[in-house]
């Protein structure tokens, strides 16, 4: 039923709906008002007529001419004229003077003068001293009349005054008032129509010209979009009330603190306001791609002011857990490390292939056999021992690639024979381990390739009881300046120029996320540096308090 009504209403424009509603409301109000006014007017007119009749009759009963005429028991022309004049001035239909015998001394119809009153019983009540109203039919027709006794100086009743108005006259007066009321109501209806037109135009301007169907569709689309977006969205007004929040924001924030009251129309929590909105509220400027720390979680957030007709009306923030983005970055970085390692191995393989092809073309088959044996021997020495102690194929292949890459730059990269890494089920960690190894070894190669001694030693071991991977890289490079130690893990800091300084920062983030340890020191002989890392592979989310650099 509701759906059918909505479909019906969607066929009409907003202007038509507003005009219809306003007119319907106005019309109902006017009809109810007219019913009430009609009853009020009729009742008030009857009350006014009675008050007027009683007042005129009582005043007329005190007139000396009337008293003298009744005392002398005479029909006076002056009484007739006086009665007609008073009746005319007071808009009464008749004022009749009756003597003690209830004979008319005055009457609008001269032929009735000298005759008995038409309803003797009704008039006789006044002779008994009872002033009263009566609604009966007289010779002038149906009407309302008031009887009052006339008393002499000794307070003896000497006659009766009857003042009255016919129902026709009352109805005529009521009709005149009703016409005026109807005119006023009509004016009210016209004003309502004008108001409806103005209101519809103003409301449509406020709604940016959207029709009801457009508004309904936009609301549904907004809700759908909000539910489908992975980023959290929160909008607040200038009073810090939440005006919009999507489910992703609720999920992200309640996972940190279940006490957050995250619902529309609620006040934004003070902590959330301080982290996400305070800076935007102060500057009234857009804050893009901020790294914001809430509890132990870092968010990437963009906060924008909400300006309505150039007036600040609040702000909206979109945010996402940085760890999700870091995971993507780690994956991409690990992939790049794979590519570099494969490129180095491919280059080494192509060099050996070219040698073999050259010897074959020269038909030096003995040398070909000898060279292949040498390659086999080198493989067992360089490759075999790596795969024997590093059981993870991906990591072993990566290390071999780095060994060949270092060799191309005349740097000796050696895997410590005491190293050992079992073939663990750690698919979720391979990219991170490769990223750490890649950045450490790249830094070590850069630091040693221009030195006299070009030696790098890599050690890997795994602590089974604590599920901790231990990585140690020792190089013979130029070491670390004491002034740079406190800046090593800052994002963008590098001694190699602009556009660098992200490798150690990425390593620090990974280690820190897993509650690990990282330590960088210069070697005792002041040649090169040692990087020591402990990376737990079974827990995540504990803030690192052990890092030392």
From TrEMBL:
InterPro entries: HATPase_C_sf, HATPase_dom, His_kinase_dom, sCache_3, Sensor-like_sf, Sig_transdc_His_kin-like_C, Sig_transdc_His_kin_SpoOB, SPOB_a. The chain crosses the membrane at residues 12-37, 177-198. It holds the Pfam family sCache_3_2. One of its GO terms (cellular component) is plasma membrane. It is a multi-pass membrane protein. Its EC number is 2.7.13.3. Keywords: ATP-binding, Cell membrane, Kinase, Membrane, Nucleotide-binding, Phosphoprotein, Transferase, Transmembrane, Transmembrane helix, Two-component regulatory system. Residues 344-539 form the Histidine kinase domain. It catalyses: ATP + protein L-histidine = ADP + protein N-phospho-L-histidine. It comes from the Bacteria. One of its GO terms (molecular function) is phosphorelay sensor kinase activity. It is found in: Cell membrane. The keyword Hydrolase does not apply. This is histidine kinase.
């Amino acid at each position: 039923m509701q759906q059918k009504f909505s479909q019906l209403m969607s066929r009409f424009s907003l202007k038509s709906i507003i005009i219809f509603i306003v007119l319907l409301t106005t019309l109902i109000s006017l009809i109810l008002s007219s019913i009430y006014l009609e009853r009020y007017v009729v009742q008030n007119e009857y009350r006014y007529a009675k008050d007027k009749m009683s007042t005129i009759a009582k005043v007329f009963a005190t007139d000396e001419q009337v008293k003298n005429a009744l005392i002398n028991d005479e029909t006076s022309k002056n009484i007739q004229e006086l009665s007609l004049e008073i009746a005319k001035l007071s808009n009464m239909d008749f004022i009749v003077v009756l003597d003690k015998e209830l004979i008319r001394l005055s009457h609008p119809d001269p032929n009735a003068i000298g005759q008995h009153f038409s309803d003797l019983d009704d008039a006789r009540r006044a002779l008994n001293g009872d002033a009263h109203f009566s609604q009966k039919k007289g010779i002038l027709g149906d009407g309302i009349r008031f009887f009052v006794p006339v008393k002499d100086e000794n307070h003896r009743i000497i006659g009766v005054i009857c003042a009255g108005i016919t129902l026709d006259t009352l109805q005529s007066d009521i009709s005149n008032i009703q016409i005026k009321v109807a005119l006023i109501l009509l004016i009210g209806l016209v004003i309502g129509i004008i108001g409806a037109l103005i209101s519809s135009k103003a409301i449509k301007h406020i709604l940016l010209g959207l029709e009801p169907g457009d508004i309904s569709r936009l609301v549904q689309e907004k809700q759908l979009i909000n539910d489908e977006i992975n980023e959290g969205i929160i909008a607040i007004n200038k009073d810090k009330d939440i005006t919009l929040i999507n489910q992703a924001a609720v999920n992200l924030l309640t996972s940190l603190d279940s006490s957050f009251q995250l619902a529309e129309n609620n006040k934004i929590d003070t902590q959330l306001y301080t982290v996400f909105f305070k800076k935007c509220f102060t500057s009234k400027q857009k804050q893009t791609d901020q790294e914001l720390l809430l509890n132990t979680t870092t968010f990437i957030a963009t906060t924008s002011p909400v300006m309505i007709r150039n007036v600040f009306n609040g702000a909206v923030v979109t945010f996402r857990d940085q760890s999700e983005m870091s995971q993507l970055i780690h994956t991409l970085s690990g992939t790049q490390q794979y590519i570099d390692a494969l490129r180095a191995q491919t280059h080494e393989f192509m060099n050996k292939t070219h040698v073999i092809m050259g010897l074959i073309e020269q038909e030096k088959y003995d040398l070909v056999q000898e060279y292949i044996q040498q390659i086999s021997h080198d493989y067992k020495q360089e490759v075999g021992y790596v795969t024997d102690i590093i059981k993870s194929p991906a990591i072993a292949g990566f290390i071999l690639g780095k060994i060949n890459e270092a060799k191309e730059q005349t740097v000796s990269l050696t895997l410590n024979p005491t190293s050992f890494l079992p073939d663990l089920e750690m698919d979720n960690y391979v990219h991170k381990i490769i990223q750490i190894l890649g950045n450490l070894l790249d830094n070590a190669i850069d630091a040693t390739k221009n030195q006299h001694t070009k030696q790098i030693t890599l050690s890997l071991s795994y602590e089974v009881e604590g599920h901790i991977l231990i990585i140690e890289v020792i190089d013979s490079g130029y070491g670390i300046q004491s002034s740079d130690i406190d800046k090593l893990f800052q994002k963008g800091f590098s001694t190699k120029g602009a556009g660098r300084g992200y490798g150690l920062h990425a390593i620090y983030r990974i280690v820190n996320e897993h509650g690990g340890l990282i330590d960088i020191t210069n070697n005792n002989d002041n040649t090169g540096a040692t990087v020591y890392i402990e990376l737990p592979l079974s827990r995540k989310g504990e803030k690192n308090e052990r890092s030392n650099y």
